[in-house]
Amino acid sequence: MDEVKVVVAHSERATLRVGDVFLKVDADQARIDVEVEAMALAPVPTPKVLWRKPSVLAIAAVPGTVLGRLGEPSTASPAAWAAAGAAIRKLHDAPLPPWPGRRLDELVAELDGECEWLVANGVLPADLVTRNRQVAEAALRPWTPVFTHGDLQIAHVFVDGDEITGIIDWSEASQGDALYDLATLTLGHEEHLGDVVAGYGTDVDLDVIRAWWSLRSLLGVRWLAEHGFDPTAPGCEVDVLRSRM
């Protein structure tokens, strides 16, 4: 009998693996609904939906291995990173999903609130927060919305050799900024940014991508700490913030 493996678990959601089946349990049914619809619309490889019931989604495992993990060197080839960039471009060129994404004013308010909290509670030095808030400003501009994955961290992209075999975890998909997806994929792996951009196949504003690195990291520190993750681990969010100094 296959054993049950806890892939991730916190107060909002949990993912279990039994053999080649993943069970995603989510306190927010809307996230499951978005995930299923986004996978159906996305023109890139996604997991097969086996069944769904209220608060639970069963999907098949995708072949291959993850592109990498935050805080660890990636063993994937430059061609695999370029293939990821090409897949993202295909997604961004697809018709928009019918639901909107986060508004710019909401994002600004959330960022300012998090920066204030990080300093007021002594979580991060004030100069570190201030510098990264300045860097993040470049991302806070109007963008032309595209179909974004919304949480395109490298552990959500699977490869076999130089080919993309699947992209998982679509619950944050929406209309959004194309450069946010590119930044999320390359967060903590700046050495592969050139490969991703080459595969993406068009000019991108690298300063905006770097701004999203700062912004995503500033927004993530408290959430990660409160949900049992360590943003201070080597190569992770706090190191990303320090690299902007």
TrEMBL record:
<dbReference type="InterPro" id="IPR002575">
    <property type="entry name" value="Aminoglycoside_PTrfase"/>
</dbReference>
<dbReference type="InterPro" id="IPR011009">
    <property type="entry name" value="Kinase-like_dom_sf"/>
</dbReference>
<feature type="domain" description="Aminoglycoside phosphotransferase">
    <location>
        <begin position="42"/>
        <end position="201"/>
    </location>
</feature>
<dbReference type="Pfam" id="PF01636">
    <property type="entry name" value="APH"/>
</dbReference>
<protein>
    <submittedName>
        <fullName>Phosphotransferase enzyme family protein</fullName>
    </submittedName>
</protein>
<dbReference type="InterPro" id="IPR051678">
    <property type="entry name" value="AGP_Transferase"/>
</dbReference>
